[in-house]
Amino acid sequence: MGGATQEPSTKEEMPENKFYPEMDQEEPPTGRSQTKYVPSIMSETPIGRSQTKYEPSIMSETPIEYEPSIKSGTPITHGEKDNIELLGEVYHLVQGGALTQDFSILTQTRTPVLGNTMLHIAARYGRNEIVDRVANQAPKLLFMRNKNNDTALHVAARAGHIPTVKKLLEAYNNFQRPEIVKEWAEFMHWNQSHGFNEENYVSGLIDLMKLKNEQGNNVLHEAMMSKEANNIFQVFEPYVAENRQRESLSGSCYKAALNITNKANQSVLYLAVEAGHKETVILILDKCPHNVKPKGISPLVPAIMNRDQARNLNRYKIARKFISRGSMAYEYVKSLTNDIIGNIYVYMTDMLTAILDKKQEWIHVKDTHGRLPLHYAASTSYHEGVVHLLNKCKSCSNQKDKHGFFPLHLASHGGNVEVVKELLKYCPDPTEMLDECGRNILHIAAKGGKYEVVLYILLTPQLEGMINQKDKDGNTPLHLASKWCHPKIVYALTWDDRVNVSLINHRTETALDIVNGVLQSQKEKPSLRQAKRDKL
């Protein structure tokens, strides 16, 4: 019954330029940051202490005046809300202990940090009998939210206790009880004198389902981040009555799965794809309105990115534990891990296929950065995904994002030659595929140190038009390789007879001038040993 305290689920927003941060960086790393002078440990002025009036220290002769204390003998009491003994009794009860206090008093307790009620705690532990008893004796707690703005529904869904979610919905729906109707009226600001009907409670349940906490998550968001997400929609199915807007609770859930996002700009469908809940994804796609496009980040993105996470998985992490047992154990675990990664590849490719088979038009949905799913597939070297997306729409290969990058630029920066080859099939003239800085894919590869891509371009006669092409600053690919200190690429370019090493940029620099400047700056930098000697 016990369990660790579960913090509210959060999903961070995707970084501004996650997949190609170096492409936005216009100056090469210098090796040493220029920071403000920090006083040494021997400095006369203590670090971090402002020059304010003298404050007596703990050893000061000056007597310190204290606030008058509570008079001796005065009893110190707390209300039920802050009584730690009563709170301990609540946890004792929900963890299977016997009740030793008045139950109605326990319903008044709150946890000190998050402000959870007894109902929140029971929902987190999945104690349905206590949830039922609280709903009967203290129905007001059904509508109370903690300091994270969670209802008990949020907490139960986050913990993956779908039966508890069902039990709570039954309590909310018990409109035969005047106490429940009264709490609903206060929650929804209904005028009870106008009567109460089926439309009211359907609207109320829909609003309750859409309530957001501090992370912007509703009940469905929280459920998708648990392991039991596949069953959450089935809980809402029995509530099929419609309100005046012809909305049923179950129908509203499927619509909300696409058009309600949290603060990380993630829809419920996005989270379902990210968590790998394939059955739930297919259910949402089948039940959602035909012409509705998903809001927030495209659900195709996690189908692409999760596959990339599997590719980057450290397959030797587990195997290291078996090294001491001999090479056979090491090889066995390594092959086992490879199989797991391969299965994830297949699974996420199936997820991508499942979405596009039902919603092919979503291939054109752009995110806030103007990126299509093809941009993400290209940036992560997802060759199978790139092929699949191009089979659906070849024109996506000629779409720029808000940073001016084509999918081909991102593929070049990713360094996967096969993806570059695939995208070049739909590019009649690569010299026209320029980003906002006027750079072609050879510029990008040279700057990013992608030797295999550079070598492929040099060995492909149809691509030689990019070799001496200049960007808006007059830099050729050789200039950028020199500036960003990629000697292997500089060597490959300078030994190619087609490369003009005498070309100058807008600062009248040749590539050799840049190399000399880099070497000179390195000579001027003191070594670590010299820097320590100078400091002494």
In whole angstroms, the N-to-C terminal distance is: 62 Å
Report the CATH architecture of the domain at 77-196. Answer: Alpha Horseshoe
User: Gyration radius, to the nearest Å?
Assistant: 32 Å
Residue stretches low in confidence (pLDDT < 50, at least 5 long) are 1-5, 10-15, 31-72, 308-325, 340-346
The CATH class assignment of the domain at 77-196 is Mainly Alpha
User: Which fold name fills CATH's third level, the topology of the domain at 77-196?
Assistant: Serine Threonine Protein Phosphatase 5, Tetratricopeptide repeat
Question: What's the total count of β strands?
Answer: 0
Label the overall shape: elongated
Mean pLDDT value = 81
Beta fraction:
under 5%
SSE string, helices as H and strands as E: HHHHHHHHHHHHHHHHHHHHHHHHH
- Count helical runs: 25
CATH superfamily of the domain at 77-196: Ankyrin repeat-containing domain
Question: Helix fraction?
Answer: 40-55%
Biggest sheet features: none
From the helix content, strand content and strand pairing, which structural class follows? mainly alpha
Would you kindly provide a written description of the structure presented here, covering whatever features stand out?
It is a peripheral membrane protein. Keywords: ANK repeat, Repeat. With 536 residues, the chain is mainly α. It has a domain of 120 residues: Serine Threonine Protein Phosphatase 5, Tetratricopeptide repeat. It contains 25 helices and no strands. It is elongated and about 90 Å long. It starts with 83 loop residues before the first helix and ends with a helix. The N terminus is likely disordered.
